[in-house]
Amino acid sequence: MGIRRTQLNGYYANPRFAIALNLMYVEVFELRSSFCYYRISQALTQRVKELAEHYETPLPQMVNQVTELEAKVNCPLEKMGFHL
After folding, report:
1. In angstroms, what CA-CA distances link 62 with 7, 20, 50, 68?
2. What was the pLDDT predicted at 8?
3. Nearest to residue 21, comparing CAs of 3, 35, 11, 4?
4. From start to end of the chain, where are the E strands?
């Protein structure tokens, strides 16, 4: 008994070849989807790090820093005649 052949997209192919081709497409799909998950995971991790750095400094400490910088800026302005 010979190998049964079927027509696949206009070509005569071995059914084993069709199965192997389907398995190959499944593997490609799995690779692409896992890469997509990897990219999303990396982007989320990076965003979490950015947010952690952004909110690392408490508000009262930031207010103190702004007050100090404001004093440094206002001193030369007052010397130039600007009064705030």
Report:
1. 72, 62, 17, 10
2. 52
3. 11
4. 6-8, 11-13
